[in-house]
Amino acid sequence: MKKNKIIHNIKFNKPNLQRDIVIYEGHFNHFSYDKHVHEDYTISVIEKGYMNAFLKGFHHQFDKSSIITINPDEIHACGISDNSDYKHRSLYLKPQIVKDILKDNFSKKQLSFSNSFFNNEYIYNRLFFLMNQENMSIINNLSWECELIDVINNILKINSKASDIIELPSHSILINKVKEYMHDNFYMQISLDDIANEFSISKYHLLRLFKKHTFVSLHTYLMLLRVEKAKSFLQKGLSLIETAYTCGFNDQSHLNKRFKSATGLTPGEYKSFFK
Length: 275
Known about the structure:
Blueprint: E1 8-13, E2 21-28, E3 41-48, E4 51-55, E5 58-62, E6 67-70, E7 76-80, E8 86-93, H1 95-105, E9 117-118, H2 121-131, H3 141-158, H4 170-185, H5 192-198, H6 203-214, H7 218-235, H8 240-246, H9 252-263, H10 267-271
Antiparallel strand pairs: 1-2, 2-8, 3-6, 3-8, 4-5, 4-7, 6-9
Helix pairs in contact: 2-3, 7-9
């Protein structure tokens, strides 16, 4: 029996009018992303087939009926379902963009998406149009930007918790402080003892709490954080070897391995989209 041809297509695009927005397109029939995080707000739609996903500790299957919304720093994963191909598109928005929209349109300072996904055919069609690179050539920059802001406003009205203050339990506060510590020191060779001593907590208790709240180990989270930082440096034009050492990886090979499992591309392939 003839084997199906392997499909592994990934594209990134940065609209010239807004440098803080990245549009992604992926089409696979054999690849699944490992658990990872983004520093951005992520809004995704499925164009074809079914996608398996891990969101907020639960497994889901999505098709064209769902709009997927992921907050910054939320652990998630996605991949093929039933060995069939699927195609999806994502919009990555820097937190400052969302903060500006909240301030101007909702008089709020802080936001998180209420649910990991919701259904709305009208918004789906508008998002799909905006994320299709072919459509960008038939509308001007002003129209595209106005439409994007209006769609985001609609999503926030339907699926967000906009608030001035979010009260967190003590364990969540601790985990957030640990994450902040790793964000500040991602380029250093920090150890589990370093982190435990910083917060005067047993390293065994810390490991258990961190995985319970984030669904990954401390070490895995640090590697994912370094990949996110590497993406920013590559977009700015740093060389692969500079990026590897700036982000705390042992060498370029270590960067390549971690980067591809989280993005589906090598660092060099990713960098080529942002020249």
